[in-house]
């Protein structure tokens, strides 16, 4: 918003008014990118702490801590009078993100029935999309406030959903996995499982949870153990899935969609409305993912979404290279074509990498390293989000339309990774997903070698006794 830029980022506002500055470079400001990306460095640090709290004190505790930080950060945002207060707002929100992104997907995966786990977990991404959609709609209306203080409403309204999160978490039960892991109370876990599953026949699932909990108690340092060779498949998935998620370029859309649309010729109101349109497409795609993920499977959705995103990135890059120059507005027909292609892109992301980035790692990691695996997912997400948000505007200024070809090439690489190395996990109880590695053409070698080592160790121990 112009009123926001005038008050806190006057240099960026001057660049926008200067006809000699390239369209690609109007928003290139280290201070502006620091404002955007500081939240994710804070989230990166917070998630490492949150992993330990989630494991020791439960998923609900992390949710409530995250909600409290959200509320505090919103207060500083709405009351900001200088850049340091804005940065404090972002840092506090980042800490909230670190705790909630670490605990909520984990909670959903452990509470959901196996046959609906994908749909339930995808509800997390759907709610993210709805939140971003509400924020975009709010921005569209508050920018019309002529006094120029509409941005205060935008920054302070985060307290509303944060309050729902914090209060709501008080009334949630803990997951059966954590109940057994915390105090070994199988009776309470059985009652909760029967209520969640709607049947008294939960003996098999309860036995799996007890076995996983017993193994988990022998693992004192999950972050150290996840680096062991026997957990190599899970570690690679937990590391590369969030990395690839961020190099799709989705956060370029999430962060800078209004900036991007204004760059190619849309005015202030029109660019904010364009962001609403793209987010509506993403929300619709999230609903599609919830319907299809447990029938079609994870791999198929990822591969289809990848093809869609590849074509979109290359097409946008080609249009900008041919029709958008450093000075002068783009022809409106081509600007609207870019908007349509962006909608195709966010739809492809919305039914693939958006919901599955948190689902797949939570599924493949056994209980003893699950909190550590989720911590790695969130940490890598925040790290890559920071890198991309910190570098995108400068990259756009220097290589211009080539930015989109770079993202397209990276999506080609991640398509190859999914096709070759990611196993299908749909429909399996969460404590039985480890069996997929034994059938995979690549990972089964590691599993077989680890089993042989375990047999040899048992043989040596029995012979020595």
TrEMBL record:
<dbReference type="InterPro" id="IPR044778">
    <property type="entry name" value="MFS_STP/MST-like_plant"/>
</dbReference>
<dbReference type="InterPro" id="IPR045262">
    <property type="entry name" value="STP/PLT_plant"/>
</dbReference>
<dbReference type="Pfam" id="PF00083">
    <property type="entry name" value="Sugar_tr"/>
</dbReference>
<feature type="transmembrane region" description="Helical">
    <location>
        <begin position="375"/>
        <end position="396"/>
    </location>
</feature>
<feature type="transmembrane region" description="Helical">
    <location>
        <begin position="235"/>
        <end position="256"/>
    </location>
</feature>
<feature type="transmembrane region" description="Helical">
    <location>
        <begin position="62"/>
        <end position="81"/>
    </location>
</feature>
<comment type="similarity">
    <text>Belongs to the major facilitator superfamily. Sugar transporter (TC 2.A.1.1) family.</text>
</comment>
<dbReference type="InterPro" id="IPR036259">
    <property type="entry name" value="MFS_trans_sf"/>
</dbReference>
<feature type="transmembrane region" description="Helical">
    <location>
        <begin position="149"/>
        <end position="172"/>
    </location>
</feature>
<dbReference type="InterPro" id="IPR005829">
    <property type="entry name" value="Sugar_transporter_CS"/>
</dbReference>
<dbReference type="InterPro" id="IPR005828">
    <property type="entry name" value="MFS_sugar_transport-like"/>
</dbReference>
<feature type="domain" description="Major facilitator superfamily (MFS) profile">
    <location>
        <begin position="1"/>
        <end position="426"/>
    </location>
</feature>
<keyword id="KW-0472">Membrane</keyword>
<keyword id="KW-0769">Symport</keyword>
<dbReference type="GO" id="GO:0015293">
    <property type="term" value="F:symporter activity"/>
</dbReference>
<dbReference type="InterPro" id="IPR003663">
    <property type="entry name" value="Sugar/inositol_transpt"/>
</dbReference>
<dbReference type="GO" id="GO:0016020">
    <property type="term" value="C:membrane"/>
</dbReference>
<feature type="transmembrane region" description="Helical">
    <location>
        <begin position="276"/>
        <end position="294"/>
    </location>
</feature>
<feature type="transmembrane region" description="Helical">
    <location>
        <begin position="31"/>
        <end position="50"/>
    </location>
</feature>
<feature type="transmembrane region" description="Helical">
    <location>
        <begin position="334"/>
        <end position="354"/>
    </location>
</feature>
<keyword id="KW-0812">Transmembrane</keyword>
<keyword id="KW-1133">Transmembrane helix</keyword>
<feature type="transmembrane region" description="Helical">
    <location>
        <begin position="402"/>
        <end position="422"/>
    </location>
</feature>
<keyword id="KW-0762">Sugar transport</keyword>
<dbReference type="InterPro" id="IPR020846">
    <property type="entry name" value="MFS_dom"/>
</dbReference>
<feature type="transmembrane region" description="Helical">
    <location>
        <begin position="301"/>
        <end position="322"/>
    </location>
</feature>
<feature type="transmembrane region" description="Helical">
    <location>
        <begin position="120"/>
        <end position="143"/>
    </location>
</feature>
<protein>
    <recommendedName>
        <fullName>Major facilitator superfamily (MFS) profile domain-containing protein</fullName>
    </recommendedName>
</protein>
<keyword id="KW-0813">Transport</keyword>
